[in-house]
């Protein structure tokens, strides 16, 4: 069974440019998460989806970040415009449900903003 | 915000020794989970312990939970070089999503 797929694995952009990350969760997993992980820190939740509905996006900086999961399967996270402080690893995870069950993580996208 | 706090921040041991990592959290939990992250990779789930459980084993892993002290520990016995990674605890409370700690960086020297 394929795991959580993320692309790209690495991205380097100039500040003020837009960037997008893609995630395909494990088949059948209704819940999808986007996390931000800074160096030496644990993951911090940006947004959680139940199927196509965003049910927890309180930590998403909505002035520049947006996300979508149109058909309740794969998801895209976008930053526009990117700032220097956005340099981090963006992790996607999925789980069968949101009831505190284990989460399955993708390899992440390492973003560098110059 | 991060609820869990792991201790120590970094740990270096010789292969074959045991490694113990501790985690403290702030509020009542439904369960607590431990994850491993190898350098440049995503997190991998290791073990989940529910609030009504006190100890759980999985292979060379042993997790304990003390809800009165709001703390958990992860013991890795007979460590191997391949155990070198960062280890995170994550707490689940109510209907809120998992909250991860800052992690313990374990180095196992061959």
Outline:
In chain A, 0% of the residues lie in helices and 48% in strands.
Explained architecture:
Chain A is globular, with a radius of gyration of 13 Å. Chain A is mainly beta and 114 residues long. Chain A is built from no helices and 11 strands. In chain A, the strands form 2 sheets. In chain A, strands 2, 4, 5, 6, 9, 10 and 11 form a 7-stranded mixed sheet that branches. Chain A starts with a strand and ends with a strand. By secondary structure, chain B is mainly β. Chain B has no helices and 11 strands. Chain B has strands at residues 5-7, 10-14, 19-24, 31-37, 43-50, 55-58, 61-66, 71-76, 85-92, 99-100, 104-109. The model of chain B has no long low-confidence stretch (mean pLDDT 93). Chain A binds chain B through residues 4, 33, 40-45, 48, 56, 91, 93, 98, 100-108, 110, and chain B through 2, 4, 30-31, 33, 35, 40-45, 48, 88, 90, 92, 96-103.
As a percent range, the share of helical residues of chain A equals: under 10%
Q: Topology as H/E string of chain A? A: EEEEEEEEEEE
Q: Structural class, judged by helices and strands of chain A?
A: mainly beta
Radius of gyration over C-alpha positions of chain A, nearest whole angstrom: 13 Å
Main beta sheet strand tally, sense and closure of chain B? 6 strands, mixed
Cα shape of chain B:
globular
- Termini separation of chain B: 36 Å
What's the number of helices of chain A?
0
Q: What proportion of the residues of chain B form beta strands (DSSP E)?
A: over 45%
Rg from Cα of chain B: 13 Å
Relative helix content of chain B: under 10%
- Beta-sheet strand percentage of chain A? over 45%
User: How many extended strands of chain A?
Assistant: 11
Spans of chain A of at least 5 consecutive residues whose pLDDT stays below 50 are none
Number of helices of chain B: 0
Record field, number of beta strands of chain B: 11
Features:
heterodimer; A: 114 residues; mainly beta; seven-stranded mixed β-sheet; 11 strands; globular; B: 110 residues; six-stranded mixed β-sheet; 55% strand
């Amino acid at each position: 069974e394929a795991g959580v797929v993320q692309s790209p694995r690495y991205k380097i952009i100039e500040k003020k440019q837009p960037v997008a990350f893609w995630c395909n969760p494990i088949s059948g997993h209704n819940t999808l998460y986007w996390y931000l992980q800074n160096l030496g820190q644990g993951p911090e939740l940006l947004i959680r989806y139940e199927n196509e509905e965003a049910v927890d996006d309180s930590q998403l900086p909505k002035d520049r970040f947006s996300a979508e999961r149109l058909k309740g399967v794969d998801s895209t996270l976008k930053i526009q415009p990117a700032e220097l402080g956005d340099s981090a690893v963006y992790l996607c995870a999925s789980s069968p449900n949101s009831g505190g069950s284990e989460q399955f993580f993708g390899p992440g996208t390492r973003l560098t903003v110059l | 915000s991060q609820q869990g706090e792991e201790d120590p921040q970094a740990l270096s041991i010789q292969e074959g020794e045991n490694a113990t990592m501790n985690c403290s959290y702030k509020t009542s939990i439904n369960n607590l989970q431990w994850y491993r992250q190898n350098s440049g990779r995503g997190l991998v789930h290791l073990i989940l312990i529910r609030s009504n459980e006190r100890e759980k084993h999985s292979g060379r892993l042993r997790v304990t939970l003390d809800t009165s002290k709001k703390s958990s520990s992860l013991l890795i016995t007979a460590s191997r070089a391949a155990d070198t990674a960062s280890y995170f605890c994550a707490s689940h409370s109510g209907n809120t999503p998992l909250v991860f700690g800052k992690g313990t960086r374990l180095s196992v020297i061959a």
